[in-house]
Design goal:
heterodimer; A: alpha/beta; B: alpha/beta; Rossmann fold
Amino acid sequence: MEALSNHPVSRDQAKVMNRFDLTCRLIGLLRADEAVVGGIGYTNFDLWAASALPGGGRRGPNFYMLGSMGLAVPIALGVALAQPERLVFALEGDGSALMQLGALATVAARGVRNLCIVIMDNGAYQITGGQGTATRQGADIVGIARASGLRQSAWAADEDAFAELAGRALTEDGPWLIGCRIDGGKPVDTTERDPARIRDQFMRGLGVR
Amino acid sequence: MAWHEIVRDVLKRHKVSLVTYVPDNVLRPLIEGVEADPFFTAFACTREEEALGIVAGAWMGGLRGILLMQTSGFATLPNVIASLAVPFQIPVVMMVSERGTLGEFNIGQSLVARTMRPVLDALAVEHHTMTRLDEAEFVLDRSLVQAYATMAPVCFILSPLLTGGKVFAK
């Protein structure tokens, strides 16, 4: 897309950043009402860590998967369809995204304006021991997304570019996809594994109950 | 009324307006029925897991949905039923057109069909095999009430006895 031409053409050209730092930057840009869906693994753990509120407690409209690898984008799409006035973010790792690539085509086909997908790509299944994913061998998720019909897809060249892209997602119609190359840093915390509570807090955060 | 008209009407009555599916010949009249009705948002997904995730997210956002698939598609779902729908108490409504029995011609379908009810039973997911037109409305209506009241997934299995199934073509 012409307007995104100032961003790197390929994964190789993007700066290697840090997942927790980027997640904090994203949460810092949000108002209170955006929904955020965290896939499994360290993406999820760092969303949990980055969502701790200064006065105690945790950001409300966040959903943390505890399995169902690959479904962050479909779950976020469902939320986006249910609440077209609310912006929804899906945070996924590269391994998870590769598992459910068809979801990118479905998002593009639906043309939802209120969805932004953020891919944290370290080229590895980090939580299971760092085995390499296909992105390490050259698969380019932003390229795949564009070819799936998500024209507003871009690699974040660096932290400032990430903030610029996330800011555009907050103000301009989507769907968006932001690719982030990240390092092998460990997550800062571990998500509480209490699914009924996670779901209830998410729904309260969405104003459904 | 035909079975698919009953399904469409009961879904409307319960405000189930999102329909995600991986298509199937037997489901075709139902898919065509909901796609022709502006009450519904209906679209095909690339995989049944994806279709389930969308319905789960939509319900948490306040929108009721159902996913439609055939037997072989259901066989791809145990992980996401066990790790998303059941533990998070999300009333995902599933409808499966049953292959693999009563005249099946594809051995793969007949084998995979045998995994469906054991999986549902193992996960303690409520399921009903629908065989009779005169019972269809009651089964659907009561089961949807229960699914949403108890926040539990439910699966409707459409038997060839109800739908006619897919017949052997030489």
